[in-house]
Amino acid sequence: MPAGLLGIEELDRAEIEAILARAKDFQPIQSQTLKKLDTLRGKMIVNLFYEASTRTRTSFEIAAKRLGADAVSITASGSSVSKGESLVDTLNTLAAMRPDAIVMRHAASGAPHFLARHLPTPIINAGDGTHEHPTQALLDARTILDRRGALEGLRVAIIGDIAHSRVARSNVHLLSKFGVELVLCGPASLLPVELAQLAPGVHLTTDIREAIRNADVIMMLRVQLERQHEASFPASEYFQFYGLRLEHLDLAKPDAIVMHPGPINRGRELSSEVADFQRSVILNQVENGIAVRMAVLEKVIG
Amino acid sequence: MPIVIKNGRVIDPASHTDRIADVLIVDGRIAGVAPNLSSPRAEVFDAAGMVVAPGFIDMHVHLREPGFEHAETIESGSRAAAAGGFTSVCAMPNTKPVNDSATVTSYIVERARRRAVVNVFPIGAITKGSAGEELAAIGAMKAAGAVAISDDGQPVMNARVMRRAMEFARSYDLPIIQHCEDLNLSAGGDMHEGAKSVRWGLRGIPAASEDVMVARDLVLAQLTGARYHVAHISTRNAVGMVDYARQQRLAVTCETTPHHFTLCDEEMPAYDSNYKMKPPLRSGCDRGAVVDGIVAGTVSAIATDHAPHPGSEKMQEFERCPFGIIGLETALALALEELVHPGKITLNRMVELFTTGPESVMRLGRGTLEPGAPGDVTIFSTEVSWTYDVNQSHSRSRNSPFHGRTFRGGPVATVVNGEIVWRRT
User: Fold this and answer.
1) A139 and A278 in one domain?
2) Count of CB pairs separated by less than 8 Å, A with B
3) pLDDT per residue over B273-319, tens digit each?
4) What is the distance in angstroms between the Cα of A86 and the nearest Cα belonging to chain B?
5) Tens digits of per-residue pLDDT, B175-225?
């Protein structure tokens, strides 16, 4: 299997630390006037997005360009996908054009893993179904580390539609490897009990107050209505029981930070006041996305 | 030409036979089982060191013809059956068109007569188009050769329809076979609901979806007195409920598949479509209960649920791939490896699961070496070492999780109606 990045689960701690350290090197570049390096000059990266995405696709594109690579982005609509070509055939066609890596987002869990078994090109998973979103977890870890010296011993609450969240799974795998205490919280129908076996140090609760109590980090997840194949919870009362409001923050550590992978739904999973709250680091996450993806692209292709 | 199979260990559970003997077949029928048999013009097959058993019956296969000949045909499926030691197969009705009429049943019977190298027995649909609403022409299909009814793959969700179907099945003395799955509970699922499905972000098929349907149907079986058979049983609760029903003297039976007694979800490779089937590979605990059910006699038959799909359909995202794997060529070897060699069941019991067990459900008039019975014989070795290469399969499809596995024991030759239709080369 070619060296790509399919998920966090199969990475070890040293590999993650190396990416996070390299991302830190890339952070200052984001605010320089001249932002472009030539580390990956002459390399070609294909961004293949089978699902709508603004921030992840743009972030990968900018990361590639800042490293001097060429990037082509393809979205599913308007491509051969809509002409009924199979995933394997599409990827074989792209691989024949000899890109150095394919960044891929797909609505089916495991789609990049399936392709990695049949393609010579390294694949970077930019989100597969409800499975993993490895670069999101890496940028989240980078963002936490910017505020805290270390991950060890932190208490992190992840709140929302855990069952359908690839962000939650990747974060659980990453943070658990660093000895973080994880509390997953959401409506019972979106919180399968088997989540407790995902990694060491994972606890489940359906009570948002219990989840937030003494938390260092509160990660809110988007309510993914498009991934709800049935009505798993009464949407009308979601905000009442699982929406993050300012008064909840009193339960957390005084310097607790609020994170969200975006795009945020004000008034659905968090109140507008929380979104604009001074210890909300949502935009820092977006900024770190570029540095982290530069580190990942460099690791995979460089 | 007569054939005499010499010096094998003859195991015929129907006649309580287990001894070294010869089997003589004349005019396509068993003429005798005794030491030192001979016949002037007979072809001699030396079976020394091998087991000679009644022809194996697979009561649950998908031959895909008519309608899906790119995946399998009656001919290719029957050759795979022969290579697996099966002399008779029962073909599920989910063809295109669905086998829900005497016309389609007759077509299958006729195609099999011309093309098949083993005996093929059609199973008719329970409802028209297997749509679960209107009963199919059950009596007419029986008259045309159907040996059971089932809407396999499309479980009858409506309890009232199922009740009526059971009443008809009883009046025609046909077994009614249910693929037990509550479609509301399993909707959208791609693998067993458990730690792995949650880890991999795949939607789950809960064990409860099988259990709920088995429970409902057992109540209906009691109400109607029908001969009711649970296809490919896979969960602990379902095995327990069938056991209870049998203790209550209901005419209830069940089968399980080689993959359900061999594999479990904890052991499957991530996103490998050769491990995707219905019911899904369950937990290790469920697999253990299935094996216990085989040992205890709750499970009457091993059936493969041979489900060919062409490579193009299996080479897709896991959640888009069709369900099912091929299994005819590996069933006997898996039973030996997983059940007999570890000492869980005796060789005699294994032969029962492939002969008298399915015969007791389907009543084909086969599954024995008694004189006068059809000359169907399965000759196998408990020791031959061989490796399964799915690319050499007689099936038109290649979807097997057992590709590359080396087995101890497997079929050696298959005799159907007195003719050797396959032998190991």
Assistant:
1) yes
2) 68
3) 999 999 999 999 999 999 999 999 999 999 999 999 998 888 899 99
4) 7
5) 999 999 999 999 999 999 999 999 999 999 999 999 999 999 999 999 999
Which residues of chain A make contact with B315, given a CB cutoff of 8 A?
86, 88, 118
Q: Which residue of B has its CA nearest to A91?
A: B316
Residues A75 and A28 in one domain: yes
Characterize B344-375 residue by residue with b for buried, 16 or more Cβ atoms within 10 angstroms of its Cβ, and e for exposed. Answer: ebebbbbbbbbbbbbbbbbebebbbbeeebbb
How much is the average pLDDT of B38-52? Answer: 95
- Measured CA to CA, the distance from residue A235 to residue A223 in angstroms comes to 9
Q: Point out the catalytic residue in the list B12, B243, B265, B305.
A: B305
The values of phi and psi at residue A103, to 5°, are -95, 125
Residue ranges making up the domain that contains A116: 13-132+286-301
In total, how many domains does chain A have? 2
The answer to whether residue A118 is catalytic is: no
Q: Domains in chain B, start-ordered, CATH in brackets?
A: 3-51+374-423 (2.30.40.10), 55-362 (3.20.20.140)
Residue A3 domain-assigned (yes or no)? no
Instruction: Return the exposure string of A66-104: e unless at least 16 CB atoms fall within 10 Å of the residue's CB, then b.
Output: bbebebebbbbeeeebeeeebbbebbbebbeeebbbbbb
Cα distance between residue B107 and residue B110, in whole Å: 5
pTM of the model as a whole: 0.95
A212 and A274 together in one domain: yes
Q: How far apart are CA A96 and CA A301, in angstroms?
A: 17
Report CB contact under 8 Å: B200, A114: no
Question: What is the distance in angstroms between the Cα of B268 and the nearest Cα belonging to chain A?
Answer: 14
Cβ within 8 Å, pair A130-B315 = no
pLDDT for res A140: 98
Looking at the structure, tell me whether residues A295 and A230 fall in a common domain: no
Q: What is the model's pLDDT at position B312?
A: 87
Domain shared by A196 and A292, yes or no: no
Using a CB-CB distance cutoff of 8 angstroms, which residues of chain A are in contact with residue B197?
194
Contacts of A195 in chain B (CB under 8 A): 198
Note if A253 is an active site residue.
no
Cα(A183)–Cα(A252) distance, integer angstroms: 13
Instruction: Report the C-alpha gap between B9 and B47 in whole angstroms.
Output: 8
In a domain, A71, yes or no: yes
Apex B224 CA angle, B221 and B225, nearest 5: 70
Helix (H) or strand (E) holding A218, with range, is strand A217-220
Residue A2 within a domain: no
Q: What is the tens place of the pLDDT at every residue in B92-119?
A: 999 999 999 999 999 999 999 999 999 9
Q: If you measure CA to CA, which chain A residue comes closest to B313?
A: A86
Active site residue B305: yes
Distance CA A222, CA A225 (A): 9
Shared domain check, A296 and A275: no
